[in-house]
Amino acid sequence: MFKRNYKGFIGLDLDGTVFNNEKKISAANREAIGEAVRRGYCVTPVTGRPLIGVPQEMMSVDGIEYAVVSNGAVIYRIEDSERQKWQRIYEDLLPDEKVLSILEILQEYPVVPDCFVQGVGHMPEYGREWIPRMGMAQVMVDYLLSGRKFYKDLMEYVRDEPQQVEKITINFFLNEEGRKKKQEVFARLAQIEDITLVSGAPHNLEVNTLTARKGNGMLKLAQLLGVAPERTMACGDDGNDLDMIQKAAFGVAMGNAVESLKREADFVTKSNEEDGVAFAIYKFIEMMEN
């Protein structure tokens, strides 16, 4: 089932990393990814997005055969992304009772929760109105509204849906009050046992199981592909990338990364507006082959 003769594994975050600020992949990054594939490396998106949220621009790059999504909660083997043919090969999902207890707490706050199920985000109906007013960049607003299903009662949906939730993203208003609420919610949820709680962007918090993390997902796929941990690279920019930056043999922080990530990285590359991913990929290949 798995090709097992890769020279190494390269895990790439998307937002703020592979994508520039317009949510596009530069020609230089695309060429570097292609060169790594041609040289025999497995290049894989490792993202907090659900599968349906990984842009075709990334999935259509020649040689992209796997995707680690929802912060490592799910791994897919991609057969034909245009026809949406893929196979789920690993999952680490939240129990319904945990999801419902979190959603109940969130009812006390001006937030928009987003539950990822079977590769798709699910929001309360009021999210259609709130998301455009929360202060995010328009490209992020467009992404959130275009790839979601909306429900009058999100808790009822979770109770009735037989499939479990991969991840909960909690969206906050980007203003002073929103920042305070984000801190309050973090403090409340941090008291819940057996969850991972990280910030994936200034406007959100993200909830997974205790073991569903980007680094664990990356190493699980590398193991399935027969790639040793010492031949792995990870590249990211925000708090939800810390786990894979720490666990990869070559952990790379973007030039635009949060300072806490830069402190933990083995290498700080250029920013997402300066083809930082390409720069890091070529450095990793040089390290592996010299």
Task: Tag the structure with descriptive keywords.
single chain; 290 residues; alpha/beta; Rossmann fold; six-stranded mixed sheet; five-stranded parallel sheet; 14 strands; 36% helix
Describe this structure in words.
The protein has 290 residues and is α/β, with parallel strands linked by helices. The chain is 36% helix and 25% strand. The protein is built from 12 helices and 14 strands. A hairpin with a 4-residue loop joins strand 4 and strand 5. The longest helix is centred in the middle third of the chain and has 14 residues. The protein is globular, with a radius of gyration of 18 Å. The model has no long low-confidence stretch (mean pLDDT 95).
Produce a short descriptive summary.
With 290 residues, this protein is α/β, with parallel strands linked by helices. Helices cover 36% and strands 25% of the residues.
What radius of gyration results from the CA coordinates? 18 Å
> Uncertain segments of ≥5 residues (pLDDT<50)?
none
Record field, number of beta strands: 14
Topology pattern, helix = H, strand = E: EHHEHEEEHEEHHEHEHEEHEHEHEH
Helical residue percent? Answer: 25-40%
What is the terminal-to-terminal distance? 31 Å
Output the strand order for the largest sheet: 8-7-6-9-11-10
Number of domains: 2
Query: What is the CATH homologous superfamily assignment of the largest domain?
Result: HAD superfamily/HAD-like
Overall mean confidence score, pLDDT: 95
Helical element count? 12
For the largest beta-sheet, the strand count, sense and barrel status come to:
6 strands, mixed
Oligomer: single chain
The global form is: globular
In CATH, what is the class of the largest domain? Answer: Alpha Beta
Percentage of residues in DSSP E strands: 15-25%
CATH architecture of the largest domain: 3-Layer(aba) Sandwich
Q: Could you name the CATH topology of the largest domain?
A: Rossmann fold
